[in-house]
């Protein structure tokens, strides 16, 4: 069995003209980039668009990657800035509410809920629902720290903040998350925490 190439080896290969191996970098990181994008966008279609934009931007800027941090940290920084730009544009475009579109989204949400009724009772699902209710920055920090297993320093690089600031924000995000869970689950939150 051949040893798996590192991200840095794949990047070097892409920069040397073997652009086909970029798909391996995408495969390695697409799930987490999508998860992070979903924390900001709150819906699957927008998150997919953000994730796709991130990988295109990363490909175009691959030559500027300095290798002073992990590739994943650099990529998550691109994800964060792309998501923030997307949300700013979206806010400008959505001054009025389209009731028909909201009704379709609600109908889809209800059918998804009924189709996955058993899964919806798991602690993981409740936790994800609570994270979705957080502000985008809080959701990003929680996601990067727990799901991305990023250190405070790495998150700081991603979000362009000091590690000490991230530590405070993480503590506050945990507190808000706990409040959301308590609100959702009332007494059942004790079993999850």
Element-level helix/strand string: HHHHHHHHHH
Shape: globular
CATH topology group of the largest domain: Rna Polymerase Sigma Factor, Chain: A
The level-1 CATH class of the largest domain? Mainly Alpha
- The poorly predicted ranges are 95-104, 109-121
CATH superfamily of the largest domain: RNA polymerase sigma factor, region 2, helix turn helix motif
Number of helices in the DSSP assignment: 10
CATH architecture of the largest domain: Orthogonal Bundle
Please summarize the sheet with the most strands: none
Q: What would the average pLDDT be, to the nearest integer? A: 79
Structural class, judged by helices and strands? mainly alpha
User: What Rg, in angstroms, do the CA atoms define?
Assistant: 19 Å
The tally of domains stands at 2
Kindly estimate the percentage of residues that lie in beta strands according to DSSP: under 5%
State the helical fraction: over 70%
- Strand tally is 0
């Amino acid at each position: 069995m051949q040893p798996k190439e590192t991200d840095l080896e794949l990047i070097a290969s892409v920069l040397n003209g073997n652009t086909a191996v970029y798909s391996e970098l995408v495969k390695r990181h697409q799930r987490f980039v999508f998860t992070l994008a979903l924390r900001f966008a709150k819906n699957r279609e927008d998150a997919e668009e953000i994730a796709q934009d991130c990988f295109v931007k990363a490909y175009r800027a691959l030559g500027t990657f300095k290798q002073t941090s992990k590739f994943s940290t650099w990529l998550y920084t691109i994800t964060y800035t792309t998501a923030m730009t997307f949300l700013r544009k979206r806010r400008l475009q959505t001054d009025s509410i389209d009731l028909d579109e909201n009704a379709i989204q609600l109908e889809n949400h209800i059918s998804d809920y009924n189709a996955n009724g058993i899964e919806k009772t798991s602690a993981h699902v409740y936790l994800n629902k609570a994270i979705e209710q957080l502000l985008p920055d809080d959701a990003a920090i929680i996601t990067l720290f727990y799901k991305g297993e990023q250190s405070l320093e790495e998150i700081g690089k991603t979000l362009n903040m000091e590690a000490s600031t991230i530590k405070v924000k993480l503590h506050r995000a945990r507190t808000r998350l706990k409040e959301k869970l308590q609100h959702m689950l009332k007494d059942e939150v004790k079993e999850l925490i």
